[in-house]
Design a protein that fits this description.
By secondary structure, the chain is α+β, with helices and mostly antiparallel strands. Helices cover 25% and strands 21% of the residues. The protein has one domain: FAD/NAD(P)-binding domain (3-Layer(bba) Sandwich), CATH 3.50.50. Keywords: FAD, Flavoprotein.
Length: 510
């Protein structure tokens, strides 16, 4: 829909209608404020309008080729990698595997210890409960666990793990289970449905979709954010507001800051961008969960078991998660093993089985850097995979691979697996690390590129309330502010961040 006139000023301008942006906008609207929400992708309306594409609604599979931003990069071995990010209202909550996990309390306690007051686990526990309620999270019953995942559970228990559905708990431990899912009657419940739909008819809400934000509009003197420039249908527009909230994610938020002249002075100078505020931490501290996949052709027995199950029940591809502790762990677990199946017409029995293992507490850090001042030129994204000097990230993944091959593919699961679709078995033990470097991918969880921390820390970008250091009227509320990525799938923590930052905004506005 069209926005307010360029000359009109709204209370809050939310840049990015993804997982966090929909939450922030809804909470500000609930408090009676005028909100303009700008989203680069399409807005298909409320759920009841019936206009949403099927692939974004179907929770059985990941729609990774749909509504993607197109970010690309390379892995530790030089292999090409896609960094899929959803360009649609609801963002990656309209794209994800629907498995929601909270992580471990100690990670959030560390956020608080590093200078982010009020972000300890005890302070966040109620926010997690509210987020789970809003997303209408539900647990699979025993009857709903499909045969592939039932065999995975049995194999994991045979390997000595406890069977426990505690992935939503901040004190959860090593084990295997099913996480709660944002799935309602087979439909993916994204944050646009869960939070924004209730305010669709409000005259205080303006949604401007298919609009690419180029820069935050900075007023000189006090260095204050007073709006944003965005391009829609080839035309440049300006939206003005009393306060600007950036919710563009771990790639988009640093991109917009850098194009606005907020970031490392040297990098901006190289691109000919005037430096409004020197914040060396913008685009630094990028983190992502590295992952390695072992893949197998599904057996005839698997195909038969899945067909029998699908004849009477909904068949999700992804259900179970193992929390595993490697020798490099700094807490109760540091790995996820999160298997799935996917149809593959090129295989004899029509199914592929995938066993990924991901390092949840990477020591490696990377960057988001602009290629040029051109807003249409995607940033250079480099998570710095497996670059930590102590090689702990690599060692954790090696441990996880060995656990899978020893306990899963050779255990109860073996009857469902045909020939291997990877070549790891051809490598000697001394060559496994190199295989990991050349074959790793990621868990779709970028974070940390505008880190939250004490104002005395030169690499902090935002204070504990999300306000950008050195810029009045500008706040960030998304995964980019994570000081360290929690050992979780981050959709649920991002909703918690959005809820908490919205409260800070409301307290400040009053």
């Amino acid at each position: 829909m069209t926005g307010r006139p360029d000359s009109e000023t709204t209370d809050f301008l939310v840049l990015g209608g993804g997982t966090s942006g929909c939450v922030v906008a809804a909470r500000l609207l609930a408090a009676g404020h005028r909100v303009t929400l700008i989203e680069a992708g399409p807005d298909y309306g409320s759920l009841i309008d019936g206009s949403w594409p099927r692939e974004l609604l179907d929770a059985a599979a990941l729609p990774l080729d749909s509504h993607d931003w197109g970010y690309c990069g390379v892995g530790a071995g030089g292999q090409p990698l896609r960094y899929e990010r959803a360009r649609v209202l609801g963002g990656c909550s309209a794209h994800n595997g629907c498995t929601q996990t909270a992580g471990w309390a100690g990670d959030y306690d560390e956020w608080a210890a590093q200078g982010s007051v009020g972000w300890d686990a005890a302070s966040l526990s109620e926010d997690f409960e509210h987020a789970m309620d809003a997303l209408r999270l539900r647990f699979y019953s025993e009857e709903e666990i499909q045969p592939f995942h039932r065999a995975f559970i049995d194999s994991s228990v045979d390997a000595g793990l406890n069977y426990q559905h505690d992935l939503h708990q901040l004190d959860g431990a090593q084990g295997v289970g099913c996480a709660p899912v944002n799935v309602v009657d087979g439909m993916r419940m994204n944050t646009a449905f869960a939070f924004l739909d209730a305010w669709r008819s409000s005259p205080e809400l303006t949604v401007i979709d298919r609009a690419h934000v180029e820069t935050v509009l900075i007023q000189g003197g006090t260095v204050a954010a007073v709006g944003a420039r965005y391009r829609r249908d080839g035309q440049l527009h300006v939206a003005r507001a009393d306060r600007v909230v950036l919710c563009a994610g771990a790639y988009g938020s640093p991109e917009i800051l850098l194009r606005s002249g907020i970031g490392p002075a040297g990098h901006l100078s190289d691109l000919g961008i005037p430096n409004a505020v020197h914040l060396p931490g913008v685009g630094e501290n990028l983190q992502e969960h590295p992952a390695v996949h072992l893949e197998y052709a599904g057996s005839a027995e698997l195909a038969s078991a899945l067909a029998d199950f699908a004849a009477t029940q909904w068949l999700p591809e992804e259900q179970t998660v193992v929390k595993l502790r490697s020798p490099h762990a700094d807490g109760p677990f540091d790995l996820h093993v999160y298997p799935w199946i996917e149809p593959d017409a090129d295989l004899e029995h029509g199914w592929r089985a995938v066993f990924p293992v991901s390092q949840l507490r990477p020591r490696s850090r990377g960057t988001v850097r602009l290629r040029s001042a051109d807003p249409d030129a995607a940033a250079v994204v480099d998570p710095g995979f497996l670059s930590d000097p102590g090689a702990a990230d690599l060692g954790s993944l090696r441990f996880g691979l060995n656990w899978i091959t020893t306990n899963i593919v050779e255990g109860t699961m073996s009857r469902f697996l045909g020939h291997a679709l990877h070549d790891l078995a051809q490598y000697r033990d001394s060559e496994v690390d190199e295989w990991i470097r050349r074959h790793h991918t990621h868990y779709w969880h970028p974070a940390g590129s505008c880190r939250m921390g004490a104002e005395t820390d030169p690499m902090s970008v935002v204070r504990h309330d999300g306000s950008v250091i050195g810029v009045e009227g500008l706040t960030i509320a998304d995964a980019s502010i994570f000081p360290d990525i929690p050992r979780a799938t981050p959709a649920l923590p991002v909703v918690v961040v959005a809820e908490r930052i919205a409260r800070f905004l409301l307290d400040g506005h009053r």
